[in-house]
From TrEMBL:
Domain Integrase catalytic: 315-478
Record keywords: Aspartyl protease, DNA integration, DNA recombination, DNA-binding, DNA-directed DNA polymerase, Endonuclease, Hydrolase, Magnesium, Metal-binding, Nuclease, Nucleotidyltransferase, Protease, RNA-directed DNA polymerase, Transferase
SUPFAM superfamilies cross-referenced by the UniProt entry: Chromo domain-like (SSF54160), DNA/RNA polymerases (SSF56672), Ribonuclease H-like (SSF53098)
Xref: CDD domains: RNase_HI_RT_Ty3 (cd09274)
Identification of the protein by name: OSIGBa0102B11.2 protein
Pfam families recorded: Integrase_H2C2 (PF17921), RT_RNaseH (PF17917), SH3_Tf2-1 (PF24626)
UniProt KW Aminoacyl-tRNA synthetase keyword: no
InterPro entries membership: Chromo-like_dom_sf, DNA/RNA_pol_sf, Integrase_cat-core, Integrase_H2C2, Retrovirus_Pol_polyprotein, Rev_trsase/Diguanyl_cyclase, RNaseH-like_sf, RNaseH_sf
UniProt key word Plastid: no
Species in which this protein is naturally found: Oryza sativa (Rice)
Gene coding for it: OSIGBa0102B11.2
GO molecular function: aspartic-type endopeptidase activity; DNA binding; DNA-directed DNA polymerase activity; endonuclease activity; metal ion binding; RNA-directed DNA polymerase activity
């Protein structure tokens, strides 16, 4: 039929034209086997050329979107093979421009030399003209062997014989046609459309043999099943809701469709029930939906908790005497001074609240910190019985542990990622930071020069929990200041009066601290909830993406909130538990506060996939590129910019991003140490 449109061909409507016309009408009214394309995904184009025509196939995710072919024009029959194969590529780009423009496209051809068309130095005028058109597209050209490119090859050679008629010919004649190369394709890809029964059809089939449904039908005939209806196919409905039999597999299929697919994406139990109740009904439907959502592993790992934090407040025991129990912590990240100091070592007496602020360097060794500890604490107040601190590397080092063991001091560390254990020192840190900010605004100068004044001001200021200043709790009276020179006269106290007055002072302080602790616990517990686990339970562990860590263009925020589940080994105190962590988390302390845990409602049947996230010791994780999937080039007028498609940790290949190669190489040079770069160059 196409030949009749040419000028030098006499118009003659033959029997073959009539058959082709009828076949075309049948194709137009037949059900399509092509898919609808997704513009967010890339395309694959298979091209081929022969001495008769050009053939192209547009595919996406291994499925056909469109076919295209045409006969060669008279002047095109004189093209060399290289130009003819390139003409097939250009033909595909032109007719499918509305699909391919602005979308990543991979072109496959059985002519291997086309791979190097972008870097080929000598091109004829026709090739240069086509290359300008090709550069408008984000595409790569790949070699595809001719034996595998059968569909595009068949399209480029069609026109010898009608395919429908060929299938009806005797087998001997088909073989003869194939031997003579007359267009019969014996091997190729067959696109098929399989129609599966819908959920409604599955429910209809399951109702046939379900005893409960049959009982409902009997009650309907007796007039006892009010609200139930039976349609002409014998299906039982409750109003407009189909009755689902008590079949676990069928219910799971319905729940999975409403919860785990791309069209639902893990809704909550209330939303899911409202969606399903419009179409389905079965006994205890709402309860089963709530149970299904509650035990969903993905929901438990990715959804935020909208409830009070777990774990009631557990105040530390009040010390018996001054400087028997102390807390310590470091304030880091401060501006480096002329003396080289960039951190503050904060040490607080837990009874009198007296604090010492020691300027230090982050590079100080354990022996240097020990010298400062002896000079600033031990020589003034003696050796403490107990030291409360976090799990910083300075406090967990073998040197520090051995030193305190020799001195008879017991080390009490906070649970992993729970600084509230040493909340007193953390609060002093906040006060000190505010005082240093005020000094910087009012007096200027280096912060370590103002640190002694900040220490004096803090220790000589009123404390609400003590109802006196820390200096007064320690020495029996406040220190003199320029504001109150005349309020501290001379006093003469001798012998047992000094001891009796000191003991009474300590008892008063202890009682006031108990009252303050009780008041604070009542306030805190109103905003918390009691939560406990048993040994052998499985729990999820809360993790946090490291703040401020960016990919080159976007911030990674889609990783899970929890990892696990992990088994509880034992209970440590009222609100802490020891977990059985895998070998990959050997650097993380295995005792956690209950606020960092979330109960796993379904016991795992297989080992948890703990390799998904590399958790650090502070329960944070950093998203980093793990491999380069492919590379590409973008040519501008003056230069060539290379891009790499990168897969990130904690994310699948579908979430890969394109990054500039120079930025990626400077930030993550290890990606280019292997042959991953060379694997992607052929995709250009």
């Amino acid at each position: 039929m196409t030949r009749l449109l040419q000028k030098d061909v006499k118009y003659k409507w033959s029997e073959e034209c009539e058959q082709s016309f009828q076949e075309l009408k049948n194709r137009l009214i037949s059900a399509p086997i092509l898919i609808l394309p997704d513009p967010k995904k890339g395309f694959q184009v298979y091209c081929d050329a022969s001495k008769l025509g050009l053939g192209c196939i547009l595919m996406q995710d291994g499925k056909v979107v469109a076919y295209a072919s045409r006969q060669l024009r008279p002047h095109e029959k004189n093209y060399p093979t290289h130009d003819l194969e390139l003409a097939a590529v250009v033909h595909a780009l032109k007719i499918w421009r509305h699909y391919l423009f602005g979308t990543r496209t991979e072109v496959y051809t059985d002519h291997k030399s086309l791979k190097y068309i972008f870097t080929q130095p000598d091109l004829n005028m026709r090739q240069r003209r086509w290359l300008e058109l090709i550069k408008d597209y984000d595409m790569g050209i790949h070699y595809h062997p001719g034996k595998a490119n059968v569909v595009a090859d068949a399209l480029s050679r069609k026109g010898y014989c009608n395919a429908t008629e060929g299938r009806q010919l005797p087998m001997e004649l088909c073989k003869e046609f194939e031997r003579l190369n007359l267009g019969i394709v014996s091997r190729g890809f067959v696109a098929a459309l399989e129609a599966k029964p819908t959920l409604i059809d599955q429910v209809r089939e399951a109702q046939v043999n379900d005893p409960d449904i049959q009982e409902i039908k009997k009650n309907m005939r007796r007039g006892k099943a009010i609200g139930f209806l039976e349609d002409e196919q014998g299906t039982v409905w409750l109003g407009e809701r189909i009755c689902v039999p008590d079949n676990k597999d069928l219910k799971d299929a319905i729940l999975k469709e409403a919860h785990d697919t791309l069209y639902s994406i893990h809704p909550g139990s209330t939303k899911m029930y409202q969606d399903l109740k419009e179409r389905f009904w079965w006994a205890s439907m709402k309860r089963e939906i709530a149970e299904y959502v509650a035990v969903c592993d993905v929901c438990q790992r990715v959804k935020a908790e909208h409830q009070k934090p777990a774990g009631l407040l557990q105040p530390l025991k009040i010390p018996e005497w001054k400087w028997e129990e102390i807390g310590m912590d470091f304030i880091t990240g401060l501006p480096r001074t002329s003396s080289g100091h960039d951190s503050i070592w904060v040490i607080v007496d837990r009874l009198t609240k007296v604090a010492h602020f020691i300027p230090v360097k982050t590079t100080y060794s354990g022996s240097r910190l020990a010298e400062l500890y002896m000079a600033r604490i031990v020589c003034l107040h003696g050796v403490p019985k107990k030291i409360v601190s976090d799990r910083g590397s300075q406090f967990t080092s073998n040197f520090w542990k051995k030193l305190q063991e020799e001195m008879g001091s017991k080390l009490n560390f906070s649970t992993a990622y729970h600084p509230q254990t040493d909340g007193q020192t953390e609060r002093v840190n906040q006060i000190l930071e505010d005082m240093l900010r005020a000094c910087a605004l009012d007096f200027g100068g280096s912060w370590d020069k103002n640190l002694p004044y900040a220490e004096f001001s803090y220790n000589n200021s009123y404390q609400a929990s003590l109802q006196m200043a820390p200096y007064e709790a320690l020495y029996g009276r406040k220190c003199r200041t320029p504001l109150l020179w005349d309020q501290t006269g001379e006093r003469q106290v001798f012998g047992t009066d000094i001891l009796r007055e000191a003991e009474e002072k300590v008892k008063i302080i202890q009682e006031r601290l108990r009252v303050a602790q009780s008041r604070h616990k009542s306030y805190a517990d109103n905003r918390r909830r009691d939560l406990s686990f048993e040994e052998g339970d499985y729990v999820y562990l809360r993790v946090t993406p490291l703040r401020g860590v960016h990919r080159f263009q976007t911030k990674g925020k889609l990783a899970p909130r929890f990892v696990g589940p992990y088994k509880i080994v034992s209970r440590r105190g009222e609100v802490a538990y020891q977990l059985e962590l895998p070998q990959s988390l050997v650097g993380v302390h295995d005792v956690f506060h209950v606020s960092q845990l979330k109960k796993c409602l379904r016991v795992p049947t297989e080992e948890a996939n703990i390799e998904q996230i590399e958790v650090q010791e502070d329960l944070t994780y950093v998203e980093k590129p793990i491999r380069i999937l492919e590379t590409s080039e973008r040519r501008t007028r003056n230069r060539v910019i290379r891009f790499c498609k990168v897969q990130w940790s904690n994310h699948s290949e579908e979430e890969s991003t394109w990054e500039r190669e120079d930025e990626l190489k400077s930030a993550h040079p290890y990606l280019f140490a292997s042959s991953s770069e060379s694997r992607g160059r052929d995709s250009v």
